[in-house]
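Record NAD(P)H-binding protein, 297 aa.
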Amino acid sequence: MPTLHARRPRLLIVGCGDVGLRVLRELHGRLPVLALSSSPARAQALRAAGALPLLGNLDDPASLARLAGLADWVLHLAPPAAQGAEDRRTLNLLRALARSPRTTRLVYASTTGVYGDCAGARFDETRSPRPATDRARRRVDAEQRLRWFGASLGVRVSILRVPGIYAWDREGGHPRERLAKGAPVLRREDDVYTNHIHADDLARACLAALARGKPQRIVHACDDSELLMGDYFDLAAELCGLPRPPRISREQAREQMSPMQLSFMGESRRLDNGRLKRELRLRLRHPEVNTGLLAGA
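=>
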């Protein structure tokens, strides 16, 4: 856990889902935390986790007025809307924060999908984004707005580009669920490199970025593993005592899989996480998926 300010800053978590709740667990009450949620039904769970719930909807700018001048630090974990090439939710959030500037640090969880297909290349954060889907274009739009916001108002903005998040206790976020359904993966000659981060390590990366992130800086929030997707699922099957997934060709995948599944299987890259270790000084609890996959089982 990084050393925090002597005067405890007030943290606002926007989009306090699974990763946000893990951030709260890592904090152990050491910061006053507000959590923005559009669902009144989540208020009790957020209070139990140690946050003061705030009702607001990123799609409704009027509901965000109370955020002005409210928090020193902001952790933005909310995804964009499901349509369009712009992220209006991030725009609405930044407009609300700018009305009464108090925020000095902001961390945004983006996605490594902004790079598009890189044909298995290994690279660092200096590579330019080439988004191939509207989903990734919305993330690029959010990143650009956030960096402009930081540079214009003197806010230290850190952007974490996040790959596949997994954890045993993360709903829909562990390969055993896919393996149990017998879902196929690509044969080796068609396979792609994928990147991963354990959800607990991502929560710690968020806190490290709040404490140590450089202004307007992009950081790969990923572990050290470099695995083809099929090898990742084979390893998970071995560790969990499940059958290995069937292998199919890319042509067969086009017939059997949804467009979203195909988009993940059409992008191959290997990410350098040097900045995560050098600049944020984060020591991963699960640097390889072979330890993280069974953690908490």
